[in-house]
């Protein structure tokens, strides 16, 4: 074994002082090394494990390139797990806890009334939708492209086809699709497909996209259409035979 290989396997851990000064995006914090290392599986625990070098600023503070506005709430929880952030900053602190991988704080904060719906209920729906975030981004990109092509601000139309894996009864068809006879001629690039295991799951998919797009600030209406399929020759949507009810078609009409 060469000298280089020997040094590779015997590289000593970096030593840190017992009291740590941190510069988090310009905010200065002082805490104990033991506090930072309280949960070794977090980003902070890994950073100060001694396995990785950490840059310092000109004053010798260990530098973390992150907005430090809410970092004190993370430190307070690491110092005492009973110290939870106030509800008025809960969404911002939750993002920081997720970024730094402090799962213990995430778990406690998910029980906040203001966070429970988004981080528990809706997140369980998102996890059951394949490529959820990619589909949502694609829908927004479609509407933006329409505006660029038209040179004005028309409504952006996106057809979402939710394919339901289970057999859907005629009653489900009546409940969901008999509201409107409106049909729309949409070419393939204005079309996204989502798969759902059950009819109720499909309704949750619809509600989840509505919730998240609204939260992102987009204004739109959702129009439920009759079951249909894309004719590959005409690139137009045509009614399916009435015996098939396993597709939920939703027209998202974005307004700018």
List keywords for this structure.
256 residues; alpha/beta; four-stranded mixed sheet; three-stranded mixed sheet; 10 helices; 9 strands; 39% helix; disordered N terminus
Number of strands: 9
Rg over C-alpha atoms, rounded to the nearest angstrom: 26 Å
Spatial arrangement of strands, main beta sheet: 5-4-9-6
| Structural class by sheet pairing and helices | alpha/beta
Helix content: 25-40%
Main beta sheet strand tally, sense and closure: 4 strands, mixed
What is the end-to-end distance? 67 Å
The protein's oligomeric status is single chain
Which range does the strand content fall in?
15-25%
| pLDDT < 50 stretches | 3-10, 169-188, 228-232, 239-244
Shape category: elongated
Report the total helices.
10
Overall mean pLDDT stands at 82
- What is the helix/strand order? HEEHHEHHHHHEHEHEEEE
TL;DR?
By secondary structure, this protein is an alpha/beta fold. The chain has helices spanning 3-9, 33-36, 43-47, 71-79, 90-99, 103-109, 113-127, 132-150, 170-177, 199-215; strands at 19-24, 27-32, 62-64, 156-164, 191-196, 219-225, 228-231, 236-239, 247-255. The strands form three sheets. The chain has a four-stranded mixed beta sheet with strand order 5-4-9-6. The protein has a three-stranded mixed beta sheet with strand order 2-1-3.
